[in-house]
Amino acid sequence: MGNRLAGRIALITGASSGLGAHFARLYAGEGAAVVIGARRVDRIAALADEIKAAGGKALAVALDVTDEASIIAAYDAAEASIGVPDVVVANAGIVVPGRAIDVPAAGIRSVVDTNFTGVYLTAREGARRMIKAGSKQSEKGRVILLGSITSHMTGQGDAAYAATKLAVQHLGRQFAQEWVRQGICVNTIQPGYIRTEIDGEWFDTEGGRAQIASWPRRRLTEITALDEPMVFFASDASRQVTGSHITVDDGQSL
């Protein structure tokens, strides 16, 4: 681990497992104070304790990205305890798998509410506070949106999820343009298929193994493959990079 994010405060959504928990450990290891938000407060509390035991600085906050009041409360708690987050990682996401003709309307709405509206509200609240805190002068504002390679793929049995991830990619460019003169850089990372809680069991099934076999390198993307771009987009090194998106998928979408 290094010190590339020393002095930064990063708020990470969906941090109770998978990518979010990994990013919290990564950023803390690089010197950032991390605000880890999720609905499963027992998990994020344990993660915060783990990070602090390792010498890092962490705050667990209850956070439901589908509820704007919850988002605002999480930022309030961060400010009161640590300071204004200057890095926001909008990572929370869900999938309701199934054929488009079978997925219930409630499932579609839950995916849109979490994966698109939740990302929108999380990034917006972060930007409001960065601007108020002087991001125009410091140029230290960073917003990182988590997309997916499904945004440019078809036939994966997750139409609503894929559509929201494509929307997130474009949302990132819209936000980047709107906030570019406010010292805030907004970028999107499109991960490939990684073994996490959200879909890990699928890859142990016959269908999951067949999917892996169909990819050029016949393997899942390692979660650590995201580390360098995630640190870069959060750091001072990305001061002149905004409105971009990068795919990290080990060639799965080729």
UniProtKB/TrEMBL annotation:
Keyword line: Oxidoreductase
Any one Pfam family match given in the protein's UniProt record, by short name: adh_short
InterPro entries named among the record's database cross-references: NAD(P)-bd_dom_sf, Sc_DH/Rdtase_CS, SDR_fam
Keyword Manganese part of the UniProt annotation: no
Domain of life, per lineage: Bacteria
Molecular function via GO: oxidoreductase activity
Family: Belongs to the short-chain dehydrogenases/reductases (SDR) family.
Protein name: Short-chain dehydrogenase
Organism: Novosphingobium fuchskuhlense
